[in-house]
Structures are given as C-alpha cells and as structure tokens.
Amino acid sequence: MPYSQVVGQLWNEDQSPPVNLKWINLEGCMYLTKVPDLSRSLQIKHIDLKRCGRLVEIPSYFQHLGKLTYLDLGQCTNLKNLPEMPCNLEFLNLSSTAIEELPSSVWSHEKISHLDIRYCGHFKSLPSNTCKLKLSLGLDYCNSLCEFWELPRDTTQLQLSYSTIKELRNASIESVIGLTAIELHRCESLVSLPTNIWKLKSLKSLNLEDCSNFQNFPEISEVMEYLEFLNLSGTAVKEIPPSIRNLVVLRELDLHNCKNLEVVPDELFCLTSLQVLDLKGTEIKSLPASIKQAAQLSLLFLNNCKSLESLPELPPLLQCLEAEGCTSLKTVSSSSTALAQGWEKYKFSRGLIEKHTFFDCIRLDENARSNIMGDAQLRIMRMATESSKFKEDKIEKASYNSNKESVVGIRCGGNEIPKWFSHRSEGCSIKIELPRDWVSTDFLGFALSLVVSCQEDYYDIWYLISGCKYNFKTSNGESHAVDHLLRHPPPENRLPIGDPHEVWMWWHSSVFEEVVQGAQSPTAFYKLVTELNVDFIVRDDCYGPHLIEKCGICLLYGKDVEKMIKQRAL
C-alpha cells in the first residue's frame, strides 16, 4: 500500500494481526502515525516504511521478529528512537531520521550488510561496545556526531563529511586496515589527524576540504604506496611537511583557499607522479625552482594568489596554468628552453585543450609579458605540429566533430599583437593575400590573436565575442566561408583592476575539417585560394567597434619548427 492515504494506524488494536504476513510496503504513507501491530506476524521478512514522516517510534517487539531481514526507515524524519533489532536483520536504512543513537545490538550485529545512517542530523555517537559489522559505513551529514570508538573492520570508505567530529581515535583507525578513502569534507570541528593514519597502507584518497579549524598536518612517517589524492583545501594548515616526499604515488594535491599557507616545500616536486596542483587563494610568494622537474605536472592553478611575486621556469608538459588575479606577480621566467628540450616527450591526443591565463596580473613587467608571448608561440607550434598536419589524405577523409577539437589558448594583459604574428590589423577583421603554395603539405593552420578592451560596460567579453568567420576566395572569384566558435579559455566574470586591455592568442585544429560544398575536393579548392578574410564576430553591434581593438593572424608551417627549437634550446 505505498503512498496510500491511510490515517493514524493501518488496523485497529482489537483486530487480529495477519499471522502469515511476510512482506509489507507502506512507503510514503505520510499520515501513518503508528506501525501496524505485527507482534504476531512472526513470518515477516520485509518491512518498508520509507518516507512515513509522522512515525515517531518503532515498537520494542521488533527485536522478536526473528525472520526479519529487511527494514527501511529512511526519511522517517520524526523517528527518534530505535529498539533492539532481531538477529537475522541484513538491511537497515535509517538515513534522514531523527535518531540520536544506535542500539548496541545493531553495532554488534554480524549479519547486517547494509547500514545507512547518513543525513541523521541528531545522531550524536556510535556505541562503545565491540563492533562486529562487516560493511562500509557512511556517516555523511551527521551534523551532531562528535566521536566514535570503533569502526567496522571491513570499512573501505569512511564518510564523515559535515559531522562535528573533533578527532579520529588511534584505536579506531588501526583496526580498519582495508580503508581506501577517508572523506572529512567540512568537518569544521576537526583539529587533527592521528599519527598512525599512515599505517593505513591501502589508503588512496584523503579529503579534508573545508575543515576550517584543521591546522597541523602530521608528519608522513611511512611511505604511502597507494595514496593518490590529498585535499587540504580550505583548511588552516600553515605548512606542508618535507615528509610529503613519502607520498610516492601522489597524483593530485589540492591546497586552494589555504589562507595561512605561505611556502610550498621544495621536496614536493620530487614526486614524479604529481599531475595536478591547486594553490588558488593561498599566500605563497613564489614557487621553488625545482617545479621544472615535475615531469608529469599538467595542471597548475594559482588564481587569486595575491602575494605571488614571481614564477620560475615551468615543466614542459604543463597543459594548464591559471594565474588570474595574481595582483603582485611581476616576473615570469621563460620556459622556452624546457619546452624546446622536452618537445619529443609531448603527447598529443585528439581533443586536447591547453590554456595559460594571466588575466588581471596588473604588475607584470615587460620582460614577463615578452616571456609569456614567446612561450605561447612554442606551445601553439608544438600542438599544431603534433596534431593533424592537413595532408591531402587527411583533408579528404576528415569528419568534422567540434567536440574533438584541439585548442591552445593564452591570455595576458597588453595592448599589442605579438610581433611573431606576421599579419596585423586594427579593428575586428583582417584581410591577407596568400602566397601561391600556402596550403603545402607542412601547413599547420592559423594562429590567431586579439587585443580586447575589458571596459566596465563590457560585462562579459566571452559571451560577446562568439567566434570568427574565415572567408576563402580563389583567383576565379569562387569563395567559401567557415564559421568557427571561439574556444579561447573564457575569463572570470569580473572586471580587471588595472589596464583594461588584454591579448588573446590561440590555435584550433578544425578549420579544414569541414567539406567544401560544390568543390571537386577540398584540397583542390584550397590550392586555388589566394585571399583570406577573417572577421571576429561580436554578438552586440553596440560593442563591436570598441571591444576588439586589434587582431592578427599567422600562418604556421612545419619547416619553421626546427629553426625555432634550435633558437629556444640555446
């Protein structure tokens, strides 16, 4: 009888309860205030009372229902007390109830394989008797949970997010040798971790995000051969211990919004497996020069590091660098040597996105801007070289798929198109004459650049500049237009503090992957093209004349790569 309108109780006390009843479903009976009398239904196996929001108690005789294996009380939001449970119970759902504690019989139960007590906001503590449960326990959103003594030995994931727990006890942790993940997201009362946490040799993930009172990260006393993910974001940690080197397989370290963190340890970049480092919103002033040794580092986030003053040479395989709002950043070292020397290790894949952004870095000096622009040329040439090179057979067989487009994008403050762009123009369009053999076998595509003005009334530049249109014209008057969405990395929706001008540079892979209609073959058509017009599209005509101040285009060729690498590798 799920979701029926029964009011009060299902049958009167003077009626005989069904003796042979084995299964009852009263899910969603919101007006049910009492559990039907099942005291003589000793054959019952399955009871579903989920979402019976007016139930306040479960009768004590439930412990004598010896054949009961399934009891669902989830979202019985007024249920405060639970009696002792029968010995054969296997499934018990108490999520989103108002219970404050578990009966000891549940905690010492050996047959329960599913126990859900998540979202129990009044739940205060776990029983202190010996735990015999063989399951993985979730305690997420138990906002009143302050402590526990022992965990089920078979727990593989400890989920305590949004609880008020202050510490993890040594004894309770040591017993759970198969633990692979600890989730302590927003446990704002948590102040420490037990030192023996490093005895958990199977641990793969440790998440302390937004544990705002957590200050002291313990020394890593053991080599951890499985821990890949460590999240300390939003904590009060002041330093990362040098023993971080013992996390030998760490792939991702999240430290964003650690407001007290001022130093990144030099040992961190000895970790050859590190791929993602998030330092957004920290108080670091610099990064160790050893970062260039982080051979696998591909994502580095430094947004809103207001105290960051300099960036050293970065590792060659870094795909994404976000340094937006680094208002003290003055110097950025060139990474051209590392890029040139590590060229052969670059691994291109279809749909690869690379972006390097320096939006609102108002103190960058000219040398820093020059280094960013020079590195941008190398990054663009590298991806263009390693991607499809528009050989004749590839043009013929190409199938357009924008979801698989590969892109390199760089954003930096400035008001000039970089000098390496061979064609430059004022405004939002550019026309160039193409050389006779421009679409040769080593042609790699077009690099594009814009100087945009981020004035106060241009509230969302990324939205306004929607893309560009290539219009190819042949000597006999035939033409073909290719519309292309702008896939340059979007800025944050905020206004710059300093100079409102910004330079965008990017390359994308799919200009030639659209079949030219009406031509015998795409290759034959492009060989006849002598003129190219590129118009950058602004959604609102009111902003068009002012938003894009300058634009540029550069034809890329494979023959230029070797020369460039030699120059930069010196």
Automatic annotation (TrEMBL):
<keyword id="KW-0433">Leucine-rich repeat</keyword>
<feature type="domain" description="C-JID">
    <location>
        <begin position="413"/>
        <end position="562"/>
    </location>
</feature>
<dbReference type="Pfam" id="PF13855">
    <property type="entry name" value="LRR_8"/>
</dbReference>
<dbReference type="InterPro" id="IPR001611">
    <property type="entry name" value="Leu-rich_rpt"/>
</dbReference>
<keyword id="KW-0677">Repeat</keyword>
<dbReference type="InterPro" id="IPR045344">
    <property type="entry name" value="C-JID"/>
</dbReference>
<dbReference type="Pfam" id="PF20160">
    <property type="entry name" value="C-JID"/>
</dbReference>
<dbReference type="InterPro" id="IPR032675">
    <property type="entry name" value="LRR_dom_sf"/>
</dbReference>
<protein>
    <submittedName>
        <fullName>Probable disease resistance protein RPP1</fullName>
    </submittedName>
</protein>
